[in-house]
Amino acid sequence: RTIAPFLFEFSFSNSKRGVAILELYVDGTQIxxxxxxIQVIExxxxxxxPHKGMVADVVGVCVCAEGTIDIRGQCMASGTVTGIGAAxxxxxxxxxxxCFLNYKRRKNDEIWQVNHEELDxxxx
Length: 124
Fold this sequence. Notes:
Blueprint: E1 2-4, E2 7-8, E3 18-22, E4 25-26, E5 29-30, E6 36-40, H1 45-48, E7 54-56, E8 62-64, E9 68-71, E10 74-77, H2 78-110
Antiparallel strand pairs: 1-2, 3-6, 4-5, 7-8, 9-10
């Protein structure tokens, strides 16, 4: 796009990190400063997604790093997710065990429960 005489604006897109070669032509003739070496650097995902734990993949898309899992846009370590899941499962097992023991205690106590009407006392 021409901004002013001898002043142009253009965009450049490259999907890989490293050095890219850019050749510039004006009216089919390569300009004297062409080709240009352009250093394509890694995208800073921390700047775009602060405190999310994301890193850029080879094409510059911010994704969760290896060994992490995306949970609602936040990258969490796999070990943390596993620990939380194990703690929740242990809590459920303990709760079921407590309910079972409560049930067994009540069943055992039923043997000793006698209704008032069933009692027969001799009065002097």
